[in-house]
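[09:14] KT: can someone run the structure on this one? pasting the chain below
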Amino acid sequence: MSAPQPPPGAQIERTQLSWRRTLVSVTAVALLLARLSAVHLKGLPAAAALAAVALVWAAAVWLTHRRVRDVTTPAGRMLPALVTLILLYCAMATLLLMS
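[09:31] RB: done, structure tokens below
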């Protein structure tokens, strides 16, 4: 048996572009969080916040790369990873704004 054929039309291209737009948004948020932590925190807390932002951003890059590469597979399996990344960003932003 051969592998299933992707759906016709531009659906795959639109999906890949939407994942890339999502990565651009995540990158912008990461840069804003990094700047916020660098301006408002000093020393070890700033380094820890920058490392956390970099780690979550790297995970988003990996997830986006994987989704763009495997666009023919259902996105439902990646939903927990995406929700986790969003929650991590929200938690980091909350901690930074409260400090």
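[09:33] KT: thanks! The chain has one domain: 11-98.
[09:34] RB: yep, looked fine to me
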